[in-house]
Amino acid sequence: MEVVIVPDAAAGGELIATAIADLLTRKPDALLGVATGSTPLPIYTALAAKVRSGAVDAARARICQLDEYVGLPAGHPESYRSVVLREVVEPLGLGESSFLGPDGNAADITAACEAYDQALADTGGVDLQLLGIGTDGHIGFNEPCSSLASRTRIKTLTEQTRIDNARFFDDDIDRVPHHVITQGIGTILDARHLVLLATGAGKAEAVAATVEGPVSALVPASALQLHRHATVVVDEAAAAHLKLADYFRATYAAKPHWQGL
Ligand code: F6R
């Protein structure tokens, strides 16, 4: 696992957007797995700017969703399908045909989850999966004690995650759905490159447990330790509890430029 400490969220967004641009240059039809929430927004802003300036051509990129609320009405502005279309697909100049996501309104949720896992496999797999992290260490919506081998399935959000996400629902926790569809941890680990961005002091404890703690279902993000190409990008505030912060800084400072992320 590589840990990169950046000064702030904007620097993290720029660094990761550059890695995505490099990927799209090498593989124009790469499948990019995207996360929602606040953290990845600087990545999407920086990537869209690169597309607008002509620094990268994203016309053949494909985008897939990490997770989705169950039961929000189709077109609800906070459904993750709506968020990904608004924040990623449209700014990159792509259309819905470039986009893949699970159906949070399916009559048969179990079948929809299996179909999504199969659809991801049929595309040839995710090239780069962006991840945020919950204050409780979740990735996607794999809450603590999710199986590290799990596949896409329905999960129940913890009270803490519903409190954290109430800001997207007019600060009304009662409007935050209890259930979600999420790529499983095993599904996430199938991606070729995992890139987790964490910013702000509220993520410092979860980041330290992820990077320096034991691999444990109690901290789902710690499963990244099992992946052979996992990059964790953190700002100074989110790095505050890392014992090896100086080592991570020195390693990145000495990294050969050609390696990229
Ligand atoms: C959302 C997702 C979640 C978020 C996490 C952090 O697609 O996968 O794991 O990344 O809840 O959310 P923010 O970035 O809003 O703190």
How would you describe this structure to a colleague?
The chain has helices at 9-26, 41-53, 80-89, 109-122, 159-165, 185-189, 204-212, 245-253, and strands at residues 2-6, 31-34, 62-65, 67-69, 99-100, 128-131, 153-156, 179-182, 193-198, 230-235. Helix 1 (9-26) packs across helix 2. By secondary structure, it is α/β, with parallel strands linked by helices. Fructose -6-phosphate is lined by residues 35-39, 66-67, 80, 132-134, 138-140.
Supply the number of helical segments: 8
Let me know the number of strands.
10
* CATH architecture descriptor name: 3-Layer(aba) Sandwich
Query: Terminal Cα separation, in Å?
Result: 11 Å
What radius of gyration results from the CA coordinates? 17 Å
Question: Which CATH top level class fits?
Answer: Alpha Beta
What order do the strands of the largest sheet run in, or round the barrel if closed?
Answer: 1-10-9-6-2-3-5
Q: What attributes does this structure have?
A:
single chain; 261 residues; alpha/beta; Rossmann fold; 7-stranded parallel beta sheet; 3-stranded antiparallel beta sheet; 33% helix; globular; binds fructose -6-phosphate
Please sum up the structure shown.
The protein is built from 8 helices and 10 strands.
